[in-house]
Amino acid sequence: MRSIKKIHNAVSSPIADLITYRALPTNSIDHIDPFLFLNHHGYQEYSENNNGLPFGPHPHRGFETVTFILKGDLTHKDSSGWESVIKAGGVQWMTAGKGLIHAEISSDEFKRNGGELELLQLWVNLPAKHKMTEPNYKGLQEEDIPQLSLDSGKVKLAAVSGNWEDKKSAFEPLNDIQLATLYFAEGGKYSVEIPSERNIFFYVVKGNLKVNGKEAKIHNLVELGNDGKKLEIEALEESILLLGHAVPFNEPIVAQGPFVMNSQQEIQQAFQDYQNGKFGDWNG
What we know:
Elements: E1 4-9, E2 11-12, E3 20-24, E4 35-46, E5 55-60, E6 63-71, E7 73-78, E8 83-87, E9 91-95, E10 100-105, H1 108-113, E11 115-125, E12 136-140, E13 147-150, E14 155-161, E15 163-164, E16 167-168, E17 178-184, E18 189-193, E19 199-206, E20 208-211, E21 214-217, E22 220-224, E23 230-235, E24 239-246, E25 254-256, E26 259-261, H2 264-275
Antiparallel strand pairs: 1-22, 2-3, 3-4, 4-11, 5-10, 6-9, 6-11, 7-8, 7-10, 9-12, 13-14, 14-17, 15-16, 17-24, 18-23, 19-22, 19-24, 20-21, 20-23, 25-26
């Protein structure tokens, strides 16, 4: 059984009129290698004729963004030419690699009609050997993501990446990053064995869960030790969990603004390359 080192609280960090809780990094935890950053946007309701999301064109280099659309929609556009509108239940996986410019905005339909909005954005590091890989993007709707029904239907697992219950997932990332979203009815149980050398990412999106005997509620990030394999999870009420695991890269992490590299020199180079137009053209 994995030990629980600490249960961290996400901090309120609104962006314009967007309700946002940041689970990583906070004053109590910097990262869970290779998971670097998590913003939980919403839940909130937008009225008709709204401005939508505030994430206009901005650059990235050196890592990947995985965005989970729980409610509402998300339009992705980038300087490599990828564009898509992903709706509730879908996921966007973007490999920034050597650099691109992208925007994450609401669809025209959402801005016109309003509605519910809730998103998670997770930053996953890339190892040094992949920092300067070619950028890539893939957006999948809910129906394109394998759904597993567990515990007599009380638990639904959306297999985002890796291998869950011997089922292949929707995305095949460059590195062995396993990610899933789990939806629990009250009383639903899920247990899984994860090799002890892998770091676990465990964030409660909604509700109240018991994990290895400890309670974790909405906006809690559970930091687990590397001293066992088993996770036993039980929902004390209807709940949603973002669960991931990976072998840590154990490389230097230098993060500044929208760039995550291995040295300060590489960060300076990233700013220089961006200013010199090497991240592609933005024709948003």
